[in-house]
Amino acid sequence: MLLTWKPSPVLLASFAQFFGAGAGYLVWWYAVTLKGTPLEEIWLPVVASSIVASLSGKYFLKLPNWWLPINAVFIPAVVGALSLNLPGWAYLLAFVLTLAIFWNVRSERVPLYLTNPTTCHTLSKMLPDRPGARFMDLGSGLSGTIHFLARQHPDMQFSGVESAPIPFILSKIRQRVSGQSNLEVSHRNMWAVDLSEFDIVYCFLSPAPMTRLFEKARSEMKPGSILISNSFEVENHPPHERHHVMDPRQTQILIWRF
Questions:
Q1: Model pTM greater than 0.85?
Q2: Which residues are CB-contacts of 234 (< 8 A; sequence separation ≥ 6)?
Q3: Tens digit of pLDDT for each residue in 163-193?
Q4: How many CB atoms lie within 10 A of CB 201?
Q5: Across the beta sheet with 183-186, what order do the strands follow?
Q6: What residue ranges define each of the domains in the chain, with the CATH number in brackets?
């Protein structure tokens, strides 16, 4: 059997930074060695590194668009941090915090996407008028979506799961402070959720897990339930409904009915 290896986005982003660093070095070498530019006045290598890293990540390594700003600011951020002479523990702390926020990027290729208010309003209008219906947000982030919907639909029950530590902690604090009785946030991997318990399942993930999630929903969700995806489609399974949101990013809400 022929096995195909699919590198993770983090590895590809590392290659993008390598290309960016190489471009920056070439610009530095040209400016210092051939032109005699004073070292402290050189800013062009950093700019070159940023441009090459972001563009090579998008067009050569085929990383998703949301990697563009990450690749663009990485080397300038490193250079800026080094110029501040920060203690070693500050870099370790920054790494731990970044890992705790973007926990799902490495394993599930899912960044921290937040549903905007316009989409929340549109989603609220689309929910079925069914008292007692149960709604699940897979990858609820900072739980803004379910907090908004829970206020708009007090006769429904809203749940969210989030595996990234910091977004979950902030969501749990928000839940306690709000006192919403029809809302619950838990720290779980979305694949461990039994979707048969819910009437509506919502997600704002990335293209990577959508096929697997659709198969899970199709095998677990009961007749009459619906799966809603913010923006991301399922290959070879067109949605039953497609709604366009009038917001700056031209959001689409995709609905599959079971």
A1: no
A2: 210, 211, 213, 214, 256
A3: 877 788 888 888 888 888 899 999 888 899 9
A4: 27
A5: 183-186, 157-161, 134-138, 200-203, 226-230, 252-257, 241-244
A6: 9-85 (no CATH), 117-257 (3.40.50.150)
